[in-house]
Specification:
This protein is an alpha+beta fold. It contains three helices and eleven strands, in the order E-H-E-E-E-E-E-E-E-E-E-E-H-H. It has helices at 26-29, 168-181, 198-202; strands at residues 10-12, 33-34, 45-52, 58-60, 66-68, 74-79, 82-83, 89-91, 99-101, 107-113, 123-130. Strands 3-6-10-9-11 form a five-stranded mixed barrel. The chain has a two-stranded antiparallel ribbon with strand order 4-5. The relative contact order is 0.20. The mean pLDDT is 91.
């Protein structure tokens, strides 16, 4: 496959939304890459090129829009595990020549299993790890929110379910709506969802 053009757009998955510096063009991004010279770790940011299109045909951007991609497109993703009863089950593998797209939010890794009659995963050609200003590999754990210390205890409602598509987000959204209608200030988050933002926007 030929080298990307300098002005080729980079499609940043919603998993990378916590990062401040996300160049839009390959020419600006290529200077920030580190070689693939060690095994990936969970949350490492990978810049990859679409080699073969399979199950996933688009990537969710951080404002919720899904962008169709084509063979040769450049994607910014992050390594992670996926535990989905009706989707891929995947892990973070050792260093290899290609990886799989595990979710449309931009989580990548290696598919271990999938439901019957699922198409093969989209294949990704790694171009390099994204570098921090310090020269280390960018890892999303280093960009998480700092804990708030010493504040008041806040009542917390946790909604759980036995599997995906069991109604957790629907119930949470209705609880949030009811509480806000009652004049309460509500902050919501989602512990699952494999980095997609659509349910957060719904809440």
């Amino acid at each position: 496959m030929i080298s990307p053009r300098e002005n080729s757009l980079v499609k940043w998955g919603s998993v990378t939304r916590v990062l401040g510096n996300r160049p839009e063009r390959w020419g600006d991004l290529s200077e920030l890459l580190l070689p693939m010279d060690r095994d990936p770790e969970p949350h490492d940011v990978l810049i990859a090129r679409v080699r073969e299109i399979g199950r996933h045909t688009r990537i969710e951007l951080d404002h919720g829009r899904k962008s169709i991609f084509y063979i040769g497109d450049i994607l910014a993703l992050a390594f992670g595990w996926r535990y989905a009863t009706r989707q891929f089950f995947g892990d973070v593998p050792p260093l290899q020549n290609e990886y799989h797209m595990l979710s449309q939010g931009g989580v990548c890794g290696r598919v271990i299993s999938a439901p019957d009659r699922f198409s093969d995963p989209t294949l990704l050609e790694p171009l390099g790890y994204l570098a921090e200003k310090s020269g280390s590999i960018t890892n999303l754990r280093n960009h998480s929110l700092a804990p708030s210390m010493g504040g008041p205890r806040i009542p917390t409602i946790l909604v759980v379910g036995s599997a995906m598509d069991s109604g957790k987000t629907t119930l949470a959204s209705n609880i949030i709506h009811g509480l806000t209608q009652a004049g309460k200030v509500v902050h919501a988050g989602k512990l699952t969802g494999t980095a997609c933002v659509k349910d957060i926007f719904r809440m």
